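Methods: holo model generation. Sequences were used as deposited, without trimming of termini or removal of tags, and paired with ligand SMILES retrieved from the corresponding compound records. Each pair was processed once, and we did not select among multiple samples. The sequence and pyridoxal-5'-phosphate SMILES for this entry were:
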Amino acid sequence: MKTIFEKDKSLHSKPLYKGDIGFCERKSPLNLPDMSELEVMRHFKELSDRNFCIEKGFYPLGSCTMKYNPRVNEQVSRFDGFINLHPLQDDTDCQGALEIMYDLSRMLKIITGMHTVTLQPCAGAHGEFCAMGVVKKYFLHNGENDRKKVIIPDNAHGTNPMSAKMNGFECIEVKSDERGGVDIEELENIINEHGCTIAAIMMTNPNTLGLYDENILKISDMLHKNGSLLYYDGANLNAVMGHTNPALMGFDIVHLNLHKTFSTPHGAGGPGAGPVGVVEKLKDFLPVPQIEFDGEKYFRNYDKPLSIGKVSAFYGNFSVLVRAYTYILMLSKNLKDVSSDAVLCANYIKEKLKKHYKLPYDKPCMHEFVLSGDLQKEKGVNTLEIAKRLMDSNCHPPTVYFPLIVHEAMMIEPTESESKEVLDSFIDTMIEIAREVEQDASKFKQYPLNTPVLRADETLAARHLNIKYEFND
Ligand SMILES: *Cc1c(COP(=O)(O)O)cnc(C)c1O
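and the model returned the structure below.
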C-alpha cells in the first residue's frame, strides 16, 4: 500500500514551519462513510452490545482467569495524577508512580517468593520472552554456552516453546504420565541424554489440566542437580496464591499475568502486564530500569551492566500495574481466599459433571479442570458444537481443544467471583446439553440460535480469510 508521502514526493521538500501542517495534509479525502457523530455512536454502541463480557454472563474460559474486574481498579487507574503523567518526567516529579511500582514489586516478591521483580513486560508471553532472555544471558555470562535446550511438558501453553525458540533455544517435549503430571521416568531419560546442554524446564503448576504436579520438588531437585534452571509460567497462580509459591516449589524464574490473577479486563488480547521475578543469582540480568529506593526517594536505575536491556517502551503497562496494585491492597490478607474459593468452585462443577462427561483425570483439581467430549462425539456431537450450544444459554464457552493431549477437550475455569446460583445454572445447562445429545444429535448442527452472529461457516472463514472491510462510495 502506498503512503501519502509516496503519492506525492514533493511534499518531503516542503519546509515545516510553525503553523503550517501542509506537510502532512492529505491530497485526497479519506474514503470514509459520511455519517453524523450520533450515527457513529449508535454504530459503536450496537457493536459493543453484541460482545459477550464478564458483566453479561458466566465466562469459564479455562487458563484465562476471566474473573470479575472490580470497578475500583478502573477508578484508581484513572486518577488525574496517573493519566496525566508523562513517562519522561523527572524522577522527582513522579515519586508517587514510582512508589506504586516499587511497592507492587515488593508485593509480588512476597507472593512469588522471588528476590527481585521487573514490571516491564506487557503480557504473559512477553514476560516469558523476557525471562528466557534472562536465562540465556545467565548461562552465557557463566561461560556455559552449550546450554541451548529447554524441556517443555506436552500440555504447555503454546507461548512457552515460542518464547524459548525466539531466544534461540531448542525445545524438548516431555510427556505427561497417567496422573497428569510430568512423566518422571521420561524426564530422567531426557536429563541423562542431554545433560549439560539443558538450560531450563518451563512448567505451569498447576498445569493446564488444572492439576498440581505431585513430584514438583523431585523435578526441581533433578534439574538443579543438572545445573539447569526452573521456569514457572504463572498463568495459573490463581490456584495457589498465598497457599504456596513458586520459590517453595523450587523455581528460579517466574512470570505472572497481572491481567488474569490480579483482574484487568483482558478479552481479545489486551491490555496486560507480565512481570518477571527471579532468584538472587539472576537479578542482575533483568531489564533496565529497575525501580529502586535509596532511603529518601524512588528512582529509575539504569546502571545495570549485565541487564538484557529494555523489553518495552518506558516502564511497562502502568495502568495495568495500578489496577493490580489496587486489587492486592483491597484484598490484602484475603488473597489466599481467592485461591481457596477458585479451587472449591472448580471442584464443585467437576464433581457434578463427571457423571455426564468423560473426566480423563479423575482426582481433585485446582482452579480449573478438563473434560473430554468423547462420549458426546460418539453420538455425533463434537466439542465445538457443544460450545456453540452453550452460547445460546448466555454462557461463554470454556476453552476448547486445549490442552492438546485431551481429545475433544473442554477446559473449565469458573474463578472465585461467581455465586453458587451461577455455578448451578451452568451445571444444569451442561447436563441438559448431554441429555439433548442423547435425544437428537442432529439438532447440534444449527446452534447457536440466539446470538447476534449466528453459526459461522468455519471452513469458508478458514479457507478464504477476509479481514478487510471495503467502504462503498
Ligand atoms: C494466558 C497464558 C499464557 C500467555 O499469557 P498472555 O498474557 O496471554 O500473553 C501463557 N501460559 C499460560 C498457561 C496461559 O494460560
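The chain is about 35% helix and 10% strand.
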